[in-house]
């Protein structure tokens, strides 16, 4: 069908891409949103799926459903392979798609700092499939320990190493310690899940480096109270099937989880603009690609420096703000204005949860930790969850978990490791 | 550790195995329950996971959690490879396990009547992993239709064939018709999900052959009212990637689901007793293996003929009754009694749901269909779901779905078809 409206193509249905689409709801454009998955994931709660606290549908919703009332959007489940900026075309596996404006929001994946072989050994957490792999590894480790008769081998199954003490690493460590100490103990007859060791390793000097130093220290204390061992200033030098090396020290651990590095989506490199070490695209102050005012790069794929010199952090609120900004710039350009409004990041505060009634929160100069921070975290996360049904189910799950220490999604499905045929 | 109590090994944590374990809760025995999965599945609602109505954790619970208060049970996640009835040992991948009493309850899987190559083309529904495959195929078919420009190819993605009109086939067909007609239409811009054809093919003369003829006819009418095309007396003669053949007729359909045949678990063949055509073990009237009063075979793995000549049906209530019976026989034998009490199946009635407010129910001479049968189905299924939390979440999901036609678990994860490495 022929349509005179400018065509806006959005690559990626994460927080940035969705915010851009919504900003253009009433604009005289037609939008095609392309994602290789059929769903949007509420990433801040992904660790809860990985640690069996929530089911996948509780934190994810089909992109079509989210956008069904916005009739100027067509959602396509497909994967962009690259961008031809001269021809203004997105390359798809079958054919290509012309655009007038392009918003690239394909995010980031794990980075193993040149040790790609670690990917299989130490899975990271970016997608629902990643969360299932982590859930399976954690739950199966306790099953292996129950089957194992040799005490040293059993303990190796009960030793967990988490690499990287940013928000994801801290959340995984706290949840894992709770599972071992509160959820599982009465269910095993031969092994004792309370003998699990959870070791959180961080190369930098402190946990939650994005927070104020005093809150980092509080978070560390709260982690240690949950039974997590924290080692800062320590880099992992080797990972194999049986454990990790920290400098000269060898730690036997059958389960290693990766929460250390991020690398931008490879699509960024196809745009022809300079990128930083992590592959993030260096954009102009209005988030457009240098020399291409019709292309915007937003979210974790972009690197933007604020006027005071600090980079915009790779968090959900920043991606949403960048998405809205790109949408506004597109509207301005269609209206014949220059539209090169510089992006300004408004820091809405930072939150990280550690465990039951333990969290840290920072809003400008206001710093909160412990129970109050945990309540703020809870309300904020339930509030921002997409879709009423999800919020209600998540609240039921959490209330139930709170009273019983039970985790509702302790179901092992699928398989990982070497490729196997389905059904084995 | 040494323990003078007789050792009862139960293979399989389905309805039969769990009922046997519970029947022995207060008996002077130690029990090892072995299952290759970590969870019990409430099979009657598996089709809801396959059709995106419920999340997996809503219908499954860890076996350890279910049995955690029964301290005479050790749960092992492992897979029995065979039984040495002379040595009284179960063969495991690593080593073997001695038993005094053995209860085999490993159930059934799909049967493709000699066409094993159909397994990849037309997935069946027995496990949660099967349900994910079916969910993925159904949801991706509509995504393919949206991407496809050629009208004939698009329609092939919107044609669905379900082979077998027993309870599972009828439930899948009804749910699929509802998804196409009510859940998806407003979400697609290029293709129209209402153009989906759902074809239910049955080789026998009527749908729901286990029910009274009048109810079969009512079920057929209710299916047709939902838009399902029903073809009875028709066998599928070929299946390939692009469709099926029914006799001389060719039907283009990219999605084919299998609900036709069951084959007993291969473990039955290792017991050395006669089996029927489907591989089910022919047991004595007290459910023990001929010549082995210490071995019981129950559930879908056993074939038992009732005094009036009809076989016990392969349904959850029958498996539960057989499990309790085997447990009682073990108790009697330990107490020095012969314990060869014949099993008597008490028919608690049959229920099958077809769709929104459409179901059939049969309790002896009482036959109900339509709205009342649907309410009975709803109450019975929520009541028998394991665990309070599941019931509540399922009720929330269903109430929400009822008002909105939304299905809460429309999340595509993983991949199927040819083996691929994880993460691709």
List strands and helices in order, with pairings.
Two copies of one chain form a homodimer.
Chain A: E1 7-11, H1 15-23, E2 30-35, E3 39-41, H2 46-50, E4 60-62, H3 63-66, E5 73-77, E6 82-84, E7 89-91, E8 96-98, E9 101-104, E10 108-111, H4 118-121, H5 128-147, H6 151-157, E11 159-163, H7 167-183, E12 197-202, H8 213-225, E13 228-232, E14 236-240, E15 243-246, E16 249-252, E17 255-258, E18 261-264, E19 281-282, E20 288-289, E21 292-297, E22 302-303, H9 316-334, E23 350-355, E24 358-363, E25 366-369, H10 371-384, H11 388-404
Parallel strand pairs in A: 1-2, 1-9, 2-5, 9-21, 11-12, 11-17, 12-13, 19-22
Antiparallel strand pairs in A: 3-4, 6-7, 7-8, 10-18, 14-15, 15-16, 20-21, 23-24, 24-25
Description of the structure:
Two copies of one chain form a homodimer. Chain A is an alpha/beta fold. In chain A, 30% of the residues lie in helices and 25% in strands. Chain A has a six-stranded mixed sheet, with helices on one face. In chain A, helix 7 (167-183) links the parallel strand 11 and strand 12. Mean pLDDT of chain A is 91; it is low at 417-424. Chains A and B meet through strand 4, strand 5, helix 5 and helix 11 of A and strand 4, strand 5, helix 5 and helix 11 of B.
């Amino acid at each position: 069908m022929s349509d005179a409206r400018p065509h806006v193509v959005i690559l990626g249905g994460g927080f940035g891409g969705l915010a851009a689409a919504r900003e253009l709801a009433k604009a005289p454009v037609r939008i095609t949103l392309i994602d290789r998955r059929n769903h949007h994931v509420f990433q801040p709660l992904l660790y809860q799926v990985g640690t069996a606290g929530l089911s996948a549908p509780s934190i994810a919703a089909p992109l079509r459903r989210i956008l069904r009332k916005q009739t100027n959007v067509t959602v396509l489940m497909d994967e962009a392979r690259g961008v031809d900026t001269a021809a203004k075309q997105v390359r798809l596996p079958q054919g290509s798609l012309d655009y007038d404006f392009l918003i690239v929001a394909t995010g980031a994946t794990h980075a193993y700092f040149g040790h790609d072989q670690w990917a299989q050994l130490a899975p990271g957490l970016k997608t629902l499939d990643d969360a299932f792999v982590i859930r399976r590894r954690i739950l199966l480790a306790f099953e292996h320990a129950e089957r194992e008769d040799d005490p040293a081998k059993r303990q190796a199954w009960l030793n967990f190493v988490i690499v990287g003490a940013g928000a994801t690493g801290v959340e995984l460590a706290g949840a894992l310690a709770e599972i071992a100490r509160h959820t599982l103990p009465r269910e095993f007859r031969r092994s004792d899940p309370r003998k699990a060791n959870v070791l959180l390793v961080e190369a930098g000097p402190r946990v939650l480096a994005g927070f104020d130093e005093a809150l980092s220290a509080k978070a560390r204390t709260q982690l240690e109270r949950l039974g997590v061992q924290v080692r800062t200033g320590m880099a992992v030098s080797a990972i194999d099937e049986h454990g990790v090396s920290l400098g000269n020290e060898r730690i036997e651990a059958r389960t290693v989880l990766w929460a250390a590095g991020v690398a931008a989506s490879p699509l960024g490199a196809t745009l022809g603009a300079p990128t930083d070490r992590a592959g993030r695209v260096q954009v102009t102050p209005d988030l457009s690609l240098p020399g291409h005012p019709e292309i915007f790069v937003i979210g974790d794929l972009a690197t933007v420096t604020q006027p005071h010199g600090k980079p915009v952090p790779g968090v959900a609120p920043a991606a949403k703000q960048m998405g809205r900004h790109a949408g506004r710039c597109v509207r301005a350009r269609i209206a014949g204005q220059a539209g090169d409004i510089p992006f300004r990041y408004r820091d809405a505060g930072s939150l990280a949860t550690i465990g039951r009634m333990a969290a840290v929160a920072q809003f400008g100069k206001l710093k909160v930790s412990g129970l109050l921070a945990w309540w703020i975290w809870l309300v904020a996360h339930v509030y921002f969850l997409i879709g009423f049904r999800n919020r209600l189910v998540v609240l039921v799950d959490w209330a139930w978990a709170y009273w019983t220490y039970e985790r509702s999604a302790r179901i092992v499905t699928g398989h990982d490791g070497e490729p196997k045929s389905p059904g084995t």
